[in-house]
Design a protein that fits this description.
The protein is built from 5 helices and no strands. With about 80 residues, it is mostly helical.
């Protein structure tokens, strides 16, 4: 989790991005919604789907999925399998 108000967080993000190849762009914001996942014992999308942290998790997943499966073949296979069932 990152807090954009803190200079150290901003500096570390910039330094990591510049010095390490493959660092993902998306950062999860330090938000109470993230902490509330433990209280709710469920994913953030279940109780705060429209919050900035939920949007960040969705963006992080999208970025990771694109890196792991750039052509989207895995998603297509799942969709086809689900329609056949």
């Amino acid at each position: 989790m990152t807090d954009g108000r803190k200079r150290l967080h901003r500096e570390l993000i910039a330094e990591l991005s510049a010095s390490q190849e493959g660092v993902l762009r998306t950062a999860i914001p330090a938000a109470s919604d993230v902490e509330q996942m433990a209280v709710h014992r469920s994913p953030i999308a279940d109780f705060a789907a429209h919050g900035r942290a939920a949007r960040a998790y969705a963006e992080l997943w999208s970025e990771l999925r694109d890196r792991v499966d750039p052509g989207g073949a895995a998603a297509t296979r799942r969709d086809v399998t689900a329609t056949r069932a």
